[in-house]
Amino acid sequence: MYTEDDLLPISALQHLAFCERQWALIHLERIWSDNRLTAEGKQMHEKTHSAGSEQRGGIRVARGLRLRSLRLGVWGVADVVEFHHLSPSEESPQGLTEKRTGASLVNLAGLWRPVPVEYKRGRPKDGICDEVQLCAQAICLEEMLNVSISEAELFYGKPRRRHKVRLTAKLRKDTEDLSLRLHEITELGITPPAIYTKRCNQCSLRSSCTPRSAGRGKSALTYLSRAIKASIEEAL
Q: For 38-82, what is each residue's pLDDT tens digit?
């Protein structure tokens, strides 16, 4: 269990799952560059958070909800958490060892099942970075509300539809492992070398990262040594 002072952003967990060097440039070196993709994503999040809370039938919608997990050592702000009203037959766990699926809400009767919804501007990505971010939000809600959450949702702006994410044992394990890694490399405070992949072409930090020239085995010292050697040979 971590303390409140140890908490790291859930967004850092998403960056880490995408690329360790991107995480380090943003969260260690405090480098950030907007491009069209990040600007559109920022606008989508701001619009979502500013809409306020509402209730539609048996669904209570909360926006900009602050989350934290002392077990994972992370905190964040959820785009949307939907609370679905449970019928009396759904309110009790099926087994003695199962956690309840619904939580009590202030000034509202009955129990309500939380479903975190994360908004993304583009299309579903390769890898699990979005799923890990969403799973971390769900784990935060489980810890804060003492409930069990089996699925959550990602909303992608290009297809303009939701994608259900099952919070499987494997996804939870991946999220827990990445949380441990996040705390480990934060304590180390070292920026990893670049590893160039096709994903680098869409990264807003490409010009700061220089993945083609800052990869493994490529360093400023090596570059200077070669330049000095070339100058000496030219002079001779």
A: 555 555 555 555 556 788 889 999 999 999 999 999 999 999 999
User: What is d(CA 47, CA 231) in angstroms, rounded to the nearest whole number?
Assistant: 56
- The residues, any chain, with a CB within 8 Å of residue 174's CB and separated by 6 or more, are 128, 132, 135
Residues 113, 48: one domain? yes
* Count of domains observed in the chain: 2
Q: Positive or negative CA dihedral for 104, 106, 109, 115?
A: negative
Q: Note if the pTM is more than 0.90.
A: no
Q: Which residue did the predictor score with more confidence, 7 or 209? A: 7
Q: What does the DSSP 8-state code read for residue 88?
A: G
Same domain for 178 and 112?
yes
Structure token digits, residue 97: 């060892």
Give yes or no: residues 130 and 24 share one domain: yes
Range of the domain at 163: 4-192
Q: Do 167 and 70 share a structural domain?
A: yes
- Indicate the length of the chain as a whole number: 236
What pLDDT score was predicted for residue 5? 96
